[in-house]
Write a structure and sequence with these properties.
Distance between the termini: 37 Å
Largest sheet: 8 strands, parallel
Shape: globular
Helix content: 25-40%
């Protein structure tokens, strides 16, 4: 099978039947404010990663969606490759597979290596950074370096069964980039194909920017999407996307104050055989227990937006953990 081309729907569905129902979360260890702090040599924290993935596995999670960053590869490719391998070894001990994310248009536009900022009190994702950042998204002269990043990362782990799939670009067009991200999105798929991965490629549908969403649906081997709204919205998305005849994974959901909850949504995902990857695992430096756009400096939110566990491993809500276990282990 030529890996330079999009998988057929038949191949994608065979792949889906060969893997366990993907259920888990977007994972950043509680000691990291962003993807740079997670992966840089000085702050890579395998002890915390191991502990927190153990908590995830204990409630039946088998999949983590984990963000990389182009600056990490550009600065220290061999070091990042070694840390990725170490991470994958830890996750494999917990029977967890990984969806790696390569690019991201969310949050702060000017990423920098080195010491990362401290969290801003009460502000959701105050230190998260885009990859590669708006300036490079709009600068084709920078793209040869990005091509090297994508092809080399994918080829390094192209046959690794610990990697479930490659999510090439998170929310392309966010932060007012809109369709300006489409050229880089297109190239990301072409570059990743050159890495000859055995795993499927995807980019999650999330936005009202029709040219971007249309391309994501045309290019992805497995269709992924984001939904932070109520059950009716989720079921409508599933119905619409099932028409494409490919496996579905929701790679972002669960926002309690928006009506997106484990108790209501996991039964739908399981019934429809749609993968379910919520945002967040452990309350930590990302501050994603706070809602988007509603800062609460120095205060605890009345209701956590994301996250499943406190930093000591105790559940935020015991009933939620019971609901998760009912879906994953029941």
């Amino acid at each position: 099978m030529d890996s330079r081309y999009r998988w057929s729907a038949e191949r994608a569905n065979r792949w889906s039947k060969s893997v366990a129902w993907p259920v888990g979360c977007n994972f950043t260890p509680s000691t990291a404010i962003n993807q740079l702090e997670m992966w840089q040599a000085a702050t890579f924290d395998p002890e915390t990663i191991d502990r927190e993935l153990g908590w995830a596995a204990a409630i039946g999670f088998n999949t983590m969606r984990v963000y990389l960053h182009d600056l990490l590869w550009h600065a220290d490719a061999s070091g990042l490759r070694d840390r990725m391998d170490q991470y994958l070894a830890i996750s494999a001990r917990h029977n967890i597979r990984t969806i790696f994310v390569l690019f991201d248009d969310c949050w702060n536009k000017e990423p920098r290596l080195g010491v990362q900022p401290a969290p801003q009190s009460g502000i959701h994702n105050s230190g998260w950074v885009q990859s590669p950042g708006e300036a490079l998204v709009l600068d084709p002269t920078a793209w040869p370096r990005l091509e090297k990043y994508v092809t080399e990362v994918v080829s390094a782990f192209a046959g690794d069964t610990r990697v479930l799939m490659w999510d090439l670009y998170n929310e392309p067009g966010n932060r007012d980039l809109n369709a300006a991200s489409l050229p880089l999105l297109r190239l990301a798929f072409a570059w990743a194909r050159e890495g000859e991965p055995s795993q499927p490629l995807t980019s999650g549908v999330w936005s009202p920017f029709k040219p971007v969403a249309d391309f994501q649906l045309e290019a992805s081997d497995v269709i992924t999407f984001h939904n932070y709204d109520d059950v009716a919205s989720l079921e409508a998305d599933i119905t619409r996307l099932k028409a494409y005849g490919r496996p579905l994974i929701c790679t972002e959901y669960m926002a309690r104050t928006r009506g997106s909850r484990f108790e209501t949504h996991l039964p739908v995902f399981k019934r429809e055989n749609v993968g379910a990857i919520n945002w967040g695992l452990v309350d930590g430096k990302t501050n994603t227990k706070y809602q988007w756009g509603t800062p609460l400096p120095g205060q605890e939110p009345e209701v956590w937006f994301h996250e499943v566990f406190h930093t000591d491993g105790s559940p935020y809500r015991e009933a939620e953990v019971a609901a998760i276990k009912a879906a994953t282990l029941g």
